[in-house]
Write a structure and sequence with these properties.
This protein has 2 helices and 4 strands; from the N terminus they run H-E-E-H-E-E. Strands 1-2-4-3 form a 4-stranded antiparallel beta sheet. The two termini are about 20 Å apart. The protein is an alpha+beta fold. About 25% of the residues lie in helices and about 30% in strands.
Length: about 100
């Protein structure tokens, strides 16, 4: 499921930007995976709602479900996902995961 989320986020970025970067960084007992692009980023009026179902920030033909599904998948596993705009523009979606699996 995580692979599917990452593919969705990368596909969203490539539809709206010429460059998409995926980075992973360990912070304490977690890893933060960021998918960042060099597009226009999220509109300020859309940013608070990007994870809502059917919320679309543009007319590029998407259904508005990709980010909503990604959030449900990540949160179903007790993890977090956030969206923001990069300092130099572009969209940034970050997923925080534990470095070691839960002993569930």
């Amino acid at each position: 499921m995580l692979r599917q989320v990452l593919e969705t986020l990368a596909r969203n970025g490539t539809a709206r930007a010429s460059q998409v970067n995926l980075t992973a960084q360990s912070v304490g007992k977690h890893v933060i995976i960021e998918i960042a692009d060099n597009g226009l980023g999220f509109g300020e009026n859309v940013l608070p709602f990007v994870f809502d179902r059917f919320r679309r920030g543009d007319s590029l033909g998407s259904s508005g479900l990709g980010l909503a599904i990604a959030k449900k998948v990540i949160e179903a596993h007790g993890r977090t996902i956030t969206a923001s705009n990069g300092e130099n523009g572009g969209a940034v979606v970050a997923i925080t995961l534990p470095l070691s699996p839960d002993p569930r």
